[in-house]
From TrEMBL:
Protein's UniProt keywords contain Cell division: no
Organism: Dyella choica
Keyword list, A-Z: Membrane, Transmembrane, Transmembrane helix
Entry annotated with the keyword Nucleotide-binding: no
Lineage: Bacteria, Pseudomonadati, Pseudomonadota, Gammaproteobacteria, Lysobacterales
InterPro entries: PpoB2-like (IPR018688)
Protein name: DUF2182 domain-containing protein
Domain of life: Bacteria
Segments passing through the bilayer: 59-83, 104-133, 139-160, 239-256
Length: 257
Protein backbone atom coordinates (compact mmCIF):
# COMPACT_ATOMS: atom_id res chain seq x y z
CA UNK A 1 0.00 0.00 0.00
CA UNK A 2 1.43 3.37 -1.08
CA UNK A 3 1.56 5.96 1.68
CA UNK A 4 0.10 9.33 0.75
CA UNK A 5 2.14 12.28 2.07
CA UNK A 6 0.44 14.45 4.65
CA UNK A 7 0.62 17.46 2.31
CA UNK A 8 -1.25 15.51 -0.37
CA UNK A 9 -3.92 14.41 2.09
CA UNK A 10 -4.36 18.00 3.21
CA UNK A 11 -4.61 19.13 -0.42
CA UNK A 12 -7.35 16.62 -1.25
CA UNK A 13 -9.20 17.34 1.97
CA UNK A 14 -9.18 21.09 1.31
CA UNK A 15 -10.34 20.50 -2.28
CA UNK A 16 -13.18 18.25 -1.10
CA UNK A 17 -14.26 20.81 1.50
CA UNK A 18 -14.24 23.65 -1.06
CA UNK A 19 -16.23 21.58 -3.54
CA UNK A 20 -18.79 20.56 -0.91
CA UNK A 21 -19.26 24.17 0.19
CA UNK A 22 -19.59 25.55 -3.35
CA UNK A 23 -21.90 22.73 -4.46
CA UNK A 24 -24.12 23.25 -1.42
CA UNK A 25 -24.37 26.98 -2.03
CA UNK A 26 -25.08 26.35 -5.72
CA UNK A 27 -27.85 23.86 -4.96
CA UNK A 28 -29.40 26.21 -2.41
CA UNK A 29 -29.21 29.13 -4.85
CA UNK A 30 -30.50 27.02 -7.75
CA UNK A 31 -33.37 25.39 -5.88
CA UNK A 32 -36.73 25.64 -7.64
CA UNK A 33 -37.41 29.36 -7.91
CA UNK A 34 -40.54 30.99 -6.63
CA UNK A 35 -42.80 33.07 -8.82
CA UNK A 36 -40.98 36.17 -7.57
CA UNK A 37 -37.70 34.96 -9.13
CA UNK A 38 -38.95 34.33 -12.66
CA UNK A 39 -41.25 36.08 -15.08
CA UNK A 40 -43.56 34.24 -17.51
CA UNK A 41 -42.79 35.27 -21.08
CA UNK A 42 -44.59 34.98 -24.43
CA UNK A 43 -43.72 31.62 -25.95
CA UNK A 44 -44.32 29.61 -22.78
CA UNK A 45 -40.97 30.09 -21.03
CA UNK A 46 -39.81 32.03 -17.97
CA UNK A 47 -37.15 34.72 -17.68
CA UNK A 48 -34.84 34.54 -14.68
CA UNK A 49 -34.74 37.82 -12.79
CA UNK A 50 -31.05 37.32 -12.17
CA UNK A 51 -30.49 39.36 -15.33
CA UNK A 52 -32.72 42.23 -14.19
CA UNK A 53 -32.12 45.16 -11.85
CA UNK A 54 -34.57 45.08 -8.98
CA UNK A 55 -36.17 48.30 -7.66
CA UNK A 56 -33.85 50.01 -5.20
CA UNK A 57 -30.76 48.23 -6.55
CA UNK A 58 -28.02 49.67 -8.75
CA UNK A 59 -26.70 47.97 -11.85
CA UNK A 60 -23.28 47.66 -10.20
CA UNK A 61 -24.87 45.84 -7.23
CA UNK A 62 -26.84 43.58 -9.57
CA UNK A 63 -23.69 42.75 -11.54
CA UNK A 64 -21.77 42.07 -8.32
CA UNK A 65 -24.50 39.67 -7.13
CA UNK A 66 -24.36 37.86 -10.45
CA UNK A 67 -20.58 37.55 -10.31
CA UNK A 68 -20.67 36.11 -6.79
CA UNK A 69 -23.27 33.55 -7.90
CA UNK A 70 -21.27 32.86 -11.07
CA UNK A 71 -18.00 32.29 -9.21
CA UNK A 72 -19.58 29.94 -6.67
CA UNK A 73 -21.19 27.98 -9.50
CA UNK A 74 -17.91 27.81 -11.46
CA UNK A 75 -16.04 26.45 -8.45
CA UNK A 76 -18.64 23.70 -8.09
CA UNK A 77 -18.55 22.89 -11.80
CA UNK A 78 -14.83 23.19 -12.58
CA UNK A 79 -13.04 22.13 -9.39
CA UNK A 80 -13.43 18.37 -10.07
CA UNK A 81 -11.55 18.76 -13.35
CA UNK A 82 -9.03 21.24 -11.91
CA UNK A 83 -7.86 19.13 -8.94
CA UNK A 84 -5.82 16.63 -11.05
CA UNK A 85 -4.12 19.56 -12.81
CA UNK A 86 -3.34 21.24 -9.49
CA UNK A 87 -1.87 17.97 -8.26
CA UNK A 88 0.41 17.80 -11.31
CA UNK A 89 1.41 21.40 -10.61
CA UNK A 90 2.35 20.50 -7.04
CA UNK A 91 4.51 17.67 -8.35
CA UNK A 92 6.22 19.89 -10.93
CA UNK A 93 6.83 23.05 -8.95
CA UNK A 94 10.30 23.56 -7.53
CA UNK A 95 9.38 24.25 -3.89
CA UNK A 96 10.47 22.35 -0.82
CA UNK A 97 8.60 24.20 1.92
CA UNK A 98 5.13 22.70 2.47
CA UNK A 99 3.49 26.01 3.35
CA UNK A 100 5.16 27.62 0.36
CA UNK A 101 3.77 24.91 -1.91
CA UNK A 102 0.28 25.32 -0.48
CA UNK A 103 0.43 29.09 -1.06
CA UNK A 104 1.53 28.56 -4.66
CA UNK A 105 -1.32 26.06 -5.19
CA UNK A 106 -3.82 28.61 -3.87
CA UNK A 107 -2.41 31.22 -6.26
CA UNK A 108 -2.78 28.88 -9.24
CA UNK A 109 -6.37 28.10 -8.28
CA UNK A 110 -7.17 31.76 -7.67
CA UNK A 111 -5.72 32.75 -11.04
CA UNK A 112 -7.73 29.98 -12.70
CA UNK A 113 -11.04 31.11 -11.24
CA UNK A 114 -10.18 34.77 -11.85
CA UNK A 115 -10.14 33.92 -15.56
CA UNK A 116 -13.65 32.50 -15.14
CA UNK A 117 -14.66 35.70 -13.31
CA UNK A 118 -13.58 37.74 -16.32
CA UNK A 119 -15.70 35.44 -18.48
CA UNK A 120 -18.64 36.14 -16.16
CA UNK A 121 -18.01 39.90 -16.45
CA UNK A 122 -18.47 39.55 -20.21
CA UNK A 123 -21.52 37.31 -19.89
CA UNK A 124 -23.57 39.51 -17.57
CA UNK A 125 -23.97 42.65 -19.74
CA UNK A 126 -24.83 40.47 -22.75
CA UNK A 127 -27.42 38.53 -20.75
CA UNK A 128 -28.88 41.70 -19.23
CA UNK A 129 -29.13 43.39 -22.64
CA UNK A 130 -30.82 40.34 -24.16
CA UNK A 131 -33.26 40.09 -21.23
CA UNK A 132 -34.17 43.77 -21.64
CA UNK A 133 -34.76 43.26 -25.37
CA UNK A 134 -36.97 40.24 -24.69
CA UNK A 135 -39.00 42.24 -22.17
CA UNK A 136 -39.62 44.98 -24.74
CA UNK A 137 -40.34 42.77 -27.77
CA UNK A 138 -43.04 40.07 -27.49
CA UNK A 139 -42.06 38.79 -30.95
CA UNK A 140 -38.46 38.29 -29.83
CA UNK A 141 -39.63 36.64 -26.61
CA UNK A 142 -41.78 34.16 -28.53
CA UNK A 143 -38.75 33.15 -30.62
CA UNK A 144 -36.57 32.35 -27.58
CA UNK A 145 -37.46 28.61 -27.35
CA UNK A 146 -36.44 28.18 -30.99
CA UNK A 147 -33.26 30.20 -30.48
CA UNK A 148 -32.35 28.06 -27.47
CA UNK A 149 -32.62 24.94 -29.63
CA UNK A 150 -30.46 26.54 -32.32
CA UNK A 151 -27.81 27.53 -29.76
CA UNK A 152 -27.70 24.03 -28.28
CA UNK A 153 -27.42 22.53 -31.77
CA UNK A 154 -24.56 24.89 -32.67
CA UNK A 155 -22.82 24.08 -29.39
CA UNK A 156 -23.00 20.39 -30.32
CA UNK A 157 -21.66 21.04 -33.82
CA UNK A 158 -18.70 22.91 -32.30
CA UNK A 159 -17.60 19.62 -30.70
CA UNK A 160 -16.54 18.44 -34.18
CA UNK A 161 -14.46 21.48 -35.13
CA UNK A 162 -10.63 21.61 -35.25
CA UNK A 163 -10.81 24.64 -32.93
CA UNK A 164 -12.52 22.59 -30.22
CA UNK A 165 -10.00 19.78 -30.68
CA UNK A 166 -7.07 22.20 -30.23
CA UNK A 167 -8.53 23.77 -27.10
CA UNK A 168 -9.37 20.39 -25.59
CA UNK A 169 -5.85 19.13 -26.28
CA UNK A 170 -4.38 22.12 -24.49
CA UNK A 171 -6.53 21.41 -21.44
CA UNK A 172 -5.78 17.68 -21.44
CA UNK A 173 -2.03 18.25 -21.81
CA UNK A 174 -1.75 21.07 -19.25
CA UNK A 175 1.40 20.42 -17.18
CA UNK A 176 1.43 16.81 -18.35
CA UNK A 177 4.88 17.03 -19.93
CA UNK A 178 6.34 19.60 -17.54
CA UNK A 179 9.22 18.45 -15.34
CA UNK A 180 9.87 21.54 -13.22
CA UNK A 181 8.11 24.87 -12.73
CA UNK A 182 9.45 27.91 -10.87
CA UNK A 183 8.23 28.16 -7.29
CA UNK A 184 7.42 31.87 -7.49
CA UNK A 185 4.11 33.62 -6.68
CA UNK A 186 4.00 35.57 -9.94
CA UNK A 187 4.66 32.45 -11.99
CA UNK A 188 1.95 30.56 -10.07
CA UNK A 189 -0.62 33.31 -10.73
CA UNK A 190 0.25 33.40 -14.44
CA UNK A 191 0.05 29.60 -14.60
CA UNK A 192 -3.43 29.70 -13.11
CA UNK A 193 -4.56 32.45 -15.49
CA UNK A 194 -3.22 30.49 -18.45
CA UNK A 195 -4.99 27.31 -17.31
CA UNK A 196 -8.20 29.27 -16.78
CA UNK A 197 -8.02 30.86 -20.22
CA UNK A 198 -7.53 27.51 -21.94
CA UNK A 199 -10.39 26.04 -19.91
CA UNK A 200 -12.75 28.93 -20.72
CA UNK A 201 -12.04 28.51 -24.42
CA UNK A 202 -12.34 24.72 -24.35
CA UNK A 203 -15.62 24.82 -22.39
CA UNK A 204 -17.12 27.88 -24.11
CA UNK A 205 -19.65 25.96 -26.21
CA UNK A 206 -20.72 23.72 -23.32
CA UNK A 207 -20.96 26.72 -20.99
CA UNK A 208 -23.17 28.40 -23.60
CA UNK A 209 -25.62 25.51 -23.20
CA UNK A 210 -25.77 26.21 -19.47
CA UNK A 211 -26.47 29.88 -20.13
CA UNK A 212 -29.26 29.42 -22.68
CA UNK A 213 -30.99 26.59 -20.80
CA UNK A 214 -30.81 28.46 -17.51
CA UNK A 215 -27.76 29.74 -15.68
CA UNK A 216 -29.03 28.27 -12.39
CA UNK A 217 -30.72 25.17 -13.83
CA UNK A 218 -29.27 22.36 -11.69
CA UNK A 219 -30.01 19.61 -14.23
CA UNK A 220 -28.24 21.48 -17.03
CA UNK A 221 -25.39 22.25 -14.65
CA UNK A 222 -24.93 18.58 -13.77
CA UNK A 223 -25.01 17.49 -17.42
CA UNK A 224 -22.55 20.17 -18.56
CA UNK A 225 -20.19 19.39 -15.68
CA UNK A 226 -20.29 15.68 -16.48
CA UNK A 227 -19.58 16.38 -20.15
CA UNK A 228 -16.60 18.61 -19.31
CA UNK A 229 -15.08 16.00 -16.99
CA UNK A 230 -15.68 13.17 -19.47
CA UNK A 231 -14.12 14.85 -22.50
CA UNK A 232 -11.13 16.01 -20.47
CA UNK A 233 -10.22 12.80 -18.65
CA UNK A 234 -11.66 9.87 -20.60
CA UNK A 235 -8.90 7.83 -22.34
CA UNK A 236 -10.41 8.52 -25.79
CA UNK A 237 -11.09 12.21 -25.23
CA UNK A 238 -11.72 13.13 -28.86
CA UNK A 239 -14.19 10.29 -29.35
CA UNK A 240 -15.97 11.23 -26.14
CA UNK A 241 -16.14 14.87 -27.27
CA UNK A 242 -17.73 13.79 -30.55
CA UNK A 243 -20.20 11.53 -28.75
CA UNK A 244 -21.15 14.51 -26.58
CA UNK A 245 -21.55 16.51 -29.79
CA UNK A 246 -23.95 13.93 -31.25
CA UNK A 247 -26.07 13.93 -28.09
CA UNK A 248 -26.04 17.71 -27.92
CA UNK A 249 -27.08 18.10 -31.56
CA UNK A 250 -29.93 15.68 -30.92
CA UNK A 251 -31.01 17.69 -27.88
CA UNK A 252 -30.89 20.91 -29.89
CA UNK A 253 -33.00 19.40 -32.66
CA UNK A 254 -35.51 18.19 -30.07
CA UNK A 255 -35.74 21.64 -28.49
CA UNK A 256 -36.38 23.20 -31.91
CA UNK A 257 -39.42 21.03 -32.56
Amino acid sequence: MIAVPASERAFFAASALLFTLSATLTVVGGAPMSGMDVMPMPGGWTLSMIWMRMPGHSWSGTAASFLVMWEVMMVAMMLPSLVPTLRRYRQAVSATDGMHLDMLTVLVGTGYFFAWSVFGMLVFPLGAALAAAEMQSPALARSVPLMVGVMVLLAGATQFTPWKARQLTRCRDALRHTRTLPGQPGAAWRQGMCLGLHCCLSCANLTAIQLVIGVMDLRAMALVTSAIIAERFAPAGKLVARAIGVLTIGAGAFLMT
